[in-house]
Specification:
The complex is a heterodimer of chains A (about 425) and B (about 250). Chain A contains 19 helices and 4 strands. With about 425 residues, chain A is mainly α. In chain A, strands 1-2 form a two-stranded antiparallel sheet. Chain A has a two-stranded antiparallel sheet with strand order 3-4. In chain A, a hairpin with a 2-residue loop joins strand 3 and strand 4. Chain B is of the alpha/beta class. In chain B, about 35% of the residues lie in helices and about 25% in strands. In chain B, the strands form 2 sheets. In chain B, strands 6-7-8-3-9-10 form a 6-stranded mixed β-sheet, with helices on both faces. In chain B, strands 2-1-4-5 form a 4-stranded antiparallel β-sheet, covered by helices on one side. The radius of gyration of chain B is 18 Å and the shape is globular. Chain B starts with a strand and ends with a helix. Classes of the chains: A mainly alpha (about 425), B alpha/beta (about 250). The interface of A and B includes residues 5 and 223 of A.
Chain lengths: ~425, ~250
Amino acid sequence: MTETDQITTDPTKPAQRMRAGSMTIPLLPWIVAAALLMVLPFIFTANSAITIMNQMAITIIFALAYNMLLGQGGMLSFGHAVYAGVGGFACVHIMNMDDFFAAIPLPVLPIFGGLMGMGLATIVGSFSTRKAGTVFAMISLGVGELIAACSVIIVAFFGGEEGISGDRTYGLPTFGVEFLQQIEVYYLIALWLMISAALMYLYSRTPLGRMANAVRDNPERAEFLGYSARWVRFYSFVASGFFAGIAGALFAINYEILTEENLNTTQSGIILLVTFLGGVGFFFGPIIGAIVFTLVQTVLSLQTELWGFYLGIIFVLTVMFFPGGLAGLIMMHAGPLKTGKLGRLVLPYVKTLGSGLVGCLGAAALIEMIFHARHASTGDHEMTLYWTTFDSHTVLPWVIAALATGLGFHIARSTAPALAAAWHDANTPEGGRTA
Amino acid sequence: MTPALELHGVKKAFGKAEIIRGLTLDIGMGERHAIIGPNGAGKSTLFNLITGRFAPTGGRIQLKGQNLAGKAPFEINRMGLSRSFQITNIFPKMTVFENVRCSLLWSMGYRYNFWSMVGRSRALTEGAEAVLEQINLTARRDLPAGVLSYAEQRALEIGITIAGGADVIMLDEPTAGMSHSETDYIVELIRTVTENKTLVMVEHDMGVVFGLADRISVLVYGEIIATGAPEDVRADPRVQEAYLGAALEDH
């Protein structure tokens, strides 16, 4: 630590208090997150819950890595699954190198995945980060397709269509833990989630992380401040590749198999969707996005075959009406919280959003019934919706669903102005006059 | 003594249109030099050539004796030349403080550092606060730069330009679009922040030009038709004919 890096502790300086905000890193959210990760398996004990949480944690790391590009660096990538995928493939190969794998403990394996993702990102980034915007996006798409195509060409590495599999338990036991149990893997992933998230957060506070924001907002100005926009983008890209590789490695450890599906453009599209849904403007956005997406993907997909359709609608609505994503929606309430008027929003919210929810459920019921009426095998008229079993070829369910939809949306629409007024009121500091 | 900036036979053509037509000019160290001329004379193009935004099609540009040929803007900046823009060019989403802090990073030697926290550097924080003090924006410290008034954004632009400690400062129409009182404020600001530095500015306001500049160059159709002390330029018949006549009568 050099002299300039020391935290100022001189209390006589008046500027101290004002500066404190930017000097310290808020520890509380991190402690809460760590505690939550510790106790979650005791709350959700089912095996399926652990599986979902593992999936969730891996997606969080990947989405945070992706947001280093999209949110922090302003680079829209359509092929980022490649770096996670290649990191994962490399780790499965290490699992299959008997002697080498037997000599390293499983918890350090993600580092190899990270280095692999970073290595590939260094190569690709060396030419893709020259320009931002459309050029970068197109190159990322091209490279994504290219490497996905390689999976059936370079069979030795990608294993062709069936992929490659390994066994995580052959590694050097760590303090007697051999990672036979799902719960042991959970804590391994949780540990890496905390490490990766903390490192990515700290990165955003470094000179390079700040300049990534600057280059995103105004690359030309950054160049006239002595920074090469291209190199700033390159370093962000490489760092993002590293953490994507770690996510891929954890996937390899969790599922012990990797296929082409892990690095194709569908996967790249999903991580873009997850990140945007959560919100690119805040560090915690992708975390929320990953949690919501994984829940939709795992829980909703058990309820309906059409979950992808609903997810698509949610995504389009987010892009159109809430470009800040879920995190943006949450942070919109910081103002009312500060003025202490958050409570005034509860009733209007219940009225509008409650009736809107009824409308949505009604519309979903209509969609499900149409789908059932059209696609169920002939003579199969019985369907179950919202824990109710009924005949989809009778009139009554249709009437109920249509009524719920119409009434729900109608009430939501007619109460919307009241909500808007309440919102306006809640955002006006006490004593303030508004036109 | 080596001049701060040396232009020799500089040419720039966009396709067939020749904007700068063989321009030669020396600007001494510590000089305050104004470039004036009618609209479309090529003033902004000249700025962009010197700062590396465009590459000249002919001629030579030297900064403190070093040839700038083939140098990118960030390399020229690292050699000690900094510029502002005619259209305000800041980081609108970042806070005022962060705008200034970003402009200090390279010159304070942080380069592409990804292992130390910007918030923990006392030198960085104090340096940025000193600049804010200088440009009178301390009260706006934590606001997003995009919400500042026009004059404040122009002041911030100048703050960003001088923060890195460059010794050659280039300002492109710093008072454009400002009211009288705002102009007076910015002129005072420019005078103090460019103390002991070389200043090159493009300016339309003759009051500002004659108040600030040690020497003036008149650029007309890509050529410099006169260079000299304000009084000499004012008296030059070619200048009066080409451009100044009407404007000078006002002052």
